[in-house]
Recover the amino acids of this structure.
């Protein structure tokens, strides 16, 4: 009951008129920035940081939290409507969300995303309040070997399910890993695949690759088919901005499963919300494959509901990890950690003792932010969907412009615009020849984590590879991976037999 009493005191502080204003302002700013391709909550918090020193710490961090959660909502909006996620955490939402928009169900897709983000965020906020010690103990059990096993699981699981051809999935994964290792090796200082270009010494930005492959690649793909698909590719916006009872019942299990997948990743530094959103999508795709009539690939509501809930659940738990452990799980959390230090505060157990008013008001603001974002996004779902009524030439020209502006704003370098163009061509070629995009993104996101983890594990064991399978957690992860591979192999055999049977009947 102590936590509940402290939370009530936090609500008393968060519900003051000025703090409510900061919650609303943060949510609006986060949503607006998240809508722009290439931008995101991390950039918004970084830009606001020097402007908030005139505020008291409680007001500043309440606004930052609103920006953080609002960015997730904004990212999914553009991912659904224009296949252009603002950040990598919204990539998984593009697969089925954009298909729903193309089928004229954009308002329902946006409502699904908003409700899923609300459910995931609210459950995470409750757990942060009441289960912070348990989360901290769970996170402390993960070492380099466990992180490497987790990355390997994500690599193989994603590559084997997002494409009918495992070879194409693995090829896309290798492309992502190849891009991820470009730059100067942080351990040896050796240049890797830079071709002597100093602009590549710091590596290739994930933001650049995400925007190029997903957004610009889509633009090129649409342009290449403009004559053949004239007046056919126009995405329709129709229908109600809410879900029917049947749609809600269809999405509810996926929301809950996605939330369950996303929660642990909030206390594990495994790349932020990207990994759980892909895993949640993977789980729903596998469950859908068992149906008599699979719906994935045609705008399956569960394929959107699960990643959205997983992403916001991870974000909520990441804020808990930041406050209780001083552990930044994502780029935005890292910037907020810097903001705490600028105010002379150190996140961790002592923060709860020395600055209890700030901590509990901030935790209470999580609940308020979720409500504000739901109220902002649900009524305006149909209004956002009106963007799809813009004729394709103007729509995709605008996307291209925002891609360029977003990338140039993040780096200020012309070289990154050229890189954006080159990666956009790569994205177009992948679409043209049927290579999946998700494994490339997974390779980019988790490649550095996997490399660092395996190096640290081998260094700690003086080169003994047995350390990679020396803990019960790794056994569980590799066991699950074996089940995934067995399932993929059985599915491939069934498809081959079904194809042979159809050929026999045709003959």
């Amino acid at each position: 009951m102590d936590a509940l009493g402290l939370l009530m005191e936090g609500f008393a502080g968060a519900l003051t008129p000025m703090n409510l204003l900061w919650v609303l302002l943060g949510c609006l700013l986060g949503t607006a920035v998240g809508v722009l391709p290439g931008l995101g909550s991390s950039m918004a918090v970084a830009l606001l940081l020097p402007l908030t020193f005139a505020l008291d710490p409680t007001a500043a961090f309440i606004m930052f939290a609103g920006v953080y959660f609002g960015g997730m909502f904004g990212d999914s909006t553009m991912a659904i409507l224009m296949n252009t996620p603002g950040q990598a955490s919204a990539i998984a939402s593009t697969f089925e969300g954009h298909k729903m928009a193309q089928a004229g169900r954009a308002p329902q897709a946006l409502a699904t995303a908003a409700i899923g983000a609300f459910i995931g965020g609210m459950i995470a906020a409750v757990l942060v309040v009441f289960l912070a010690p348990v989360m901290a103990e769970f996170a402390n059990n993960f070492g380099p070997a466990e992180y490497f096993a987790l990355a390997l699981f994500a690599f193989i699981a994603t590559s084997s399910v997002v494409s009918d051809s495992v070879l194409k999935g693995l090829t896309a994964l290798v492309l992502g890993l190849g891009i991820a290792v470009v730059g100067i090796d942080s351990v040896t200082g050796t240049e890797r695949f830079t071709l002597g270009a100093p602009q590549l010494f710091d590596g290739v930005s994930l933001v650049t690759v995400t925007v190029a492959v997903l957004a610009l690649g889509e633009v090129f793909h649409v342009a290449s088919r403009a004559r053949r698909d004239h007046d056919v590719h126009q995405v329709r916006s129709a229908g109600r901005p809410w879900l029917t009872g049947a749609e809600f019942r269809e999405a509810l299990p996926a929301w809950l499963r996605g939330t369950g997948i996303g929660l642990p990743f909030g206390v594990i530094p495994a790349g932020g919300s990207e990994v759980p959103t892909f895993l949640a999508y993977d789980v729903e795709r596998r469950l859908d494959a068992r149906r008599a009539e699979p719906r994935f690939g045609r705008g399956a509501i569960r394929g959107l509901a699960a990643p959205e809930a997983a992403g916001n659940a991870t974000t909520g738990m990441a804020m808990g990890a930041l406050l209780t452990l001083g552990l930044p799980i994502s780029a935005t959390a890292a910037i907020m950690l810097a903001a705490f230090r600028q105010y002379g505060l150190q996140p961790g157990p002592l923060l709860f003792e020395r600055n209890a008013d700030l901590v509990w008001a901030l935790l209470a603001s999580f609940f308020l932010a979720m409500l504000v974002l739901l109220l902002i996004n649900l009524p305006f779902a149909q209004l956002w969907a009106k963007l799809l009524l813009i004729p394709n030439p103007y729509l995709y020209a605008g996307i291209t412009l925002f891609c360029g502006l977003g990338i140039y704003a993040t780096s200020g370098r012309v070289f990154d615009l050229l890189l954006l163009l080159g990666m956009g061509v790569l994205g177009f070629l992948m679409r043209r020849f049927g290579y999946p995009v998700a494994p490339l993104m997974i390779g980019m996101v988790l490649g550095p984590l996997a490399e660092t983890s395996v190096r640290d594990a081998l260094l700690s064991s003086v080169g003994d590879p047995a350390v990679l399978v020396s803990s019960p957690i790794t056994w569980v992860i590799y066991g699950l991976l074996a089940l995934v591979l067995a399932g993929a192999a059985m599915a491939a055999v069934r498809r081959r037999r079904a194809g042979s049977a159809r050929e026999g009947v045709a003959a």
